[in-house]
Amino acid sequence: MPIDASTTASAILPLVGGPANVTSVTHCMTRLRLALADPDLVDDAALRALPGVLGLVRSDDTCQVVLGPGVVTRVTAEFERLVTTAPVPPRETTPLKAVLRRLAGVFVPLIPALIGCGILAGLNGLLVNAGLLPGLTPALAAVAAAFMALIAVFVGYNTAKEFGGTPVLGGAVAAIVVYPGVAKVTAFGVTLSPGQGGVLGALAAALLATWVEKRCRGRVPDALDVLLTPAVTVLVAGLGTLYGIMWAAGAVSSAIGTAANWLLATTGAFAGLVLGGLFLPLVMLGLHQALIPIHTTLIDQQGYTVLLPVLAMAGAGQVGAAVAVYVRLRHDAPLGTTLRTTIRSALPAGLLGVGEPLIYGVSLPLGRPFLTACAGGAAGGAFVGFFAMLGDRVGATAIGPSGWALFPLLSGNRGLGITTAIYAGGLATGYAVGFAATYAFGGVRAAVATRTVPSTG
Fold it and tell me: Each residue of 372-406: pLDDT tens digit?
């Protein structure tokens, strides 16, 4: 049954403490993210029980309500209409989490465009390889590639917005990174090239622009502020970008690409084992957000990120573990029946890469099945990494989706058929090992007998 966005938003608001307790509202692919003045006012049990709510994630002063793709966008829009942000400062958080939250604020809004353009790029590649619709493919190529050609501008705009500057000034300075005219500029004895530094250069350029703008405000007479502050911001930050940031960011971006390729080509199976096994805990801690600039840099630089398919195996292990719990509890009632109902409702989302309902509704409350799910993710990651050692790189042209939803976004160096087969094999391995490890070592029935597992609604 379709979720009514207005009703859901209205139901969530009082359960998080009302409008005065909400200090900011954002969303990602699946979660409504709320910063709260007093997190203790949240009614966790009531939130989880709401129809349409798939799970709940709590961290410091943040409450993340898992709603699923598509639904979260509609509910967030309705929620923002209901909320009048109260002038109450959020609680203190760690510097690392604050930085990660800011990075997410810069890059997460770009994900829909990355996905849309990635799917179109894949479709265009299929048409070109098949020799179909030759009159249409140049237009599709232009539509798919335009965003990536100018992604630096969007990164700069979002960076300035997130860090308290004027967004358009951040975008203006970041645009220097992709401007063709930089090819006439020499820095450190090297002629610059358009796009040098990529999204990291755009991020650093916009940060510098924001810093310069804030130093100008208050020091420039009010009558001249509208003229001098933008001019000084663009001039100082622009020259800094040309004669420092682009060169340095270019070196860092190249190092990231080289390191990612070397890691999988040299230690692929082991690297996949570690990355696939640890990704679920990273997501729970919010540390996966640190990978977003790396993914975006690889996509900007190479056309795809080789890390995402490996990390996506964590979701496969989670699905396998959930199925094992379902099978183990087929004769257990009443809690077994409740869990099996939860798994049935959450499994389709898990197969499409939305793992929170299974994590927070099933494996994590049970304890050991969460670890066996990680084992499944490690096995799937090792599978994909092993083929990378053989020279078969599997990449994703966009970030965000995983599971079956990643198939339309796959790309690689050995053709779509081989790339798809390797990714599918990794998923199958993750499912199988997650299931077998949980069935054999998950201690499911004992955990159910001693724990209270929340319903995901």
Answer: 999 999 999 999 999 999 999 999 999 888 899 99
Statement: the pTM of the whole predicted model exceeds 0.85: no
Question: Do 222 and 313 share a domain, yes or no?
Answer: no
Closest by CA position to 35, among listed 47, 45, 23: 23
Active-site residue among 28, 117, 216, 374?
Answer: 28
Give the Cα separation of 34 and 18 in Å (integer): 12
Catalytic residue list contains 28:
yes
**Rounded distance between C-alpha atoms, residue 315 and residue 55, angstroms:** 16
b/e for 169-187, b at 16 or more Cβ within 10 A?
A: bbbbbbbbbbbeebeeeeb
- Going from the C-alpha of 218 to that of each of 213, 232, 235, 238, the distances in angstroms are 10, 14, 18, 21
Domain end marker among 60, 93, 126: 93
137 plus 260 within the same structural domain: yes
| Separation between Cα atoms, residue 457 and residue 67, nearest integer Å | 11
CA 378 to centroid of chain Cα atoms:
20
Whether residues 259 and 120 share a domain: the answer is yes
Question: Could you tell me the residue range of the domain that residue 48 belongs to?
Answer: 5-93
